[in-house]
Design goal:
There is one protein chain. The protein starts with a helix and ends in a 20-residue tail after the last helix. α1 runs antiparallel to α3 (about 45-75) and α1 packs across α4. It has helices at about 5-30, 30-40, 45-75, 95-110, 115-130. By secondary structure, it is an all-alpha fold.
């Protein structure tokens, strides 16, 4: 949670900078005739960048909500709703990878669009678990260690 905070807070700005801002700069560095051709149908490159910007903003909104819920869940807010930890510095690229990964996992695990990936990822494991514990009457008593899930 602590290492993810800077990346979630800075995801929007850094993603826009790294993904669309630089591409726009390179696009407008092309000779005028070329960028005008690419900005018109059938290419519509600038419209594509606008759609990418919209997707970055949607992902940044999700990252901000995940961060807020995490701060509250782990008691990292004081009685006034302020962060108890003074966050310093810029997010590192490895931190930004955490934010991207969190957004991808959230999409896979909780959206209707992620159902196909969920079935492919979790289906075989769930079938094996069901088979291994088929004869256990009290399914609520089963405890399974999930590596990488962290501890609560």
């Amino acid at each position: 949670m602590i290492s993810s905070n800077p990346s979630c807070r800075q995801y929007r700005r850094i993603a826009h900078l790294n993904v669309t801002h630089r591409r726009r700069q390179n696009f407008y560095a092309l000779p005028s005739a070329e960028w005008q051709l690419l900005s018109a149908p059938p290419f519509n490159f600038l419209k594509t960048l606008e759609r990418v910007d919209d997707a970055i903003d949607a992902n940044a909104d999700i990252a901000a909500e995940i961060l807020e819920i995490g701060l509250e869940s782990f008691g990292l807010r004081d009685e006034h709703g302020l962060n108890q930890i003074d966050w310093h510095g810029e997010a590192k690229s490895s931190d930004l990878d955490k934010a991207r990964s969190t957004i991808r996992h959230f999409y896979r695990d909780w959206s209707s669009e992620g159902a196909t990936e969920r079935r492919a990822s979790y289906g075989p494991v769930m079938r094996d678990i069901d088979g291994a514990f088929a004869k256990v009457a009290d399914k609520g008593a089963i405890k399974i260690l999930v590596p990488g899930a962290g501890k609560y």
